[in-house]
Amino acid sequence: MRPSGRDLSEMRPVSIETGVTKHAEGSCLIRMGDTHVLCTATIEERVPPFIKGSGLGWVTAEYGMLPRATNTRMRREAAAGKQGGRTVEIQRLIGRALRAGVDRVALGERQITIDCDVIQADGGTRCAAITGGWVALRLAVDKLIKAGIIASDPLVDHVAAVSCGIYAGQPVLDLDYPEDSEAGVDGNFIMTGAHKLIEVQMSAEGALFSRDQMNTLLDLAEKGVSQLVEAQRAATT
Questions:
Q1: What is the C-alpha to C-alpha distance for residues 51 and 10, in angstroms, rounded to an integer?
Q2: C-alpha distances in angstroms, 138 versus 1, 42, 105, 120, 198?
Q3: How many CA atoms lie within 13 A of 111 on its CB side?
Q4: What are the distances in angstroms from CA 182 to CA 50, 121, 231?
Q5: 42, 109, 188, 208 — which has fewest CB within 10 A?
Q6: Residue 165's beta-bridge partner residues?
């Protein structure tokens, strides 16, 4: 039995509310169970120096957790004077994942920054940030198309992410914190809407896993991503 009482292949309730901030070109609040992430998209008519003049666009991301997103207060990273290694790793992951679903030629020489701020954490914050980040990106790109700034849609497919793992010896979908903290195997699966893999993060956290178990987790991830893509569609159409 999972701590939440969910079936092994059951996602937490997912909701995506759009237009939650006034100024951002795209914004949403994604809730995956008790994990809540605010995602905003900012369009800038510039690109990083290393691609300037190439005609290619760029999508990047920043990620952070509010001090009371967790059970105990975390010190703001700005107060510490630098970002932690986990934060840097996650925001690079979000940027890589979202760029995989973008035709950067069609985007043109401009940058879209996705800011992902965790309001409340209960496991799977990076997956929620990627899934919600795509929605914010979709809304920002729609504004560029509507304004006639770009001629064709640069988003080639949906991008979504979900966690899977081995908990109490069983493969489970969409780990919450009680499961994540005790899982023998923990993985994050990032896919397109067509189930093409963008990135897989898998690690043994106390138990080794077989090829068959990994295939089972991949099947669970495909099911979860399909549900997340449907939520993305509902939020953006």
A1: 42
A2: 37, 12, 16, 23, 18
A3: 15
A4: 42, 16, 28
A5: 208
A6: 172, 186
Q: Per the annotation, does 126 bind a ligand?
A: yes
Alpha carbons 104 and 195: distance in angstroms, whole number: 21
Q: If DSSP codes are grouped into helix, strand and coil, which group holds residue 81?
A: coil
Is 125 a known ligand-binding residue? yes
Single out the residue of 68, 73, 69 nearest to residue 121, CA to CA. 69
pTM: 0.97
Structure tokens at 184: 């023998």
Tokens of 61: 């991301």
Domain residue limits, the chain: 14-236
Query: Going by CATH, does the domain composed of 14-236 fall within 3.30.70.20?
Result: no
Residue type, 118: V
At 153, list the tokens: 């849609």
pLDDT tens-digit map of 7-56: 999 999 999 999 999 999 999 999 999 999 999 999 999 999 999 999 99
- Per the CB < 8 A criterion, the answer to whether 16 and 235 are in contact is yes
Q: How many CB atoms lie within 10 A of CB 69?
A: 19
Contact (Cβ atoms closer than 8 angstroms) between residue 188 and residue 161: yes
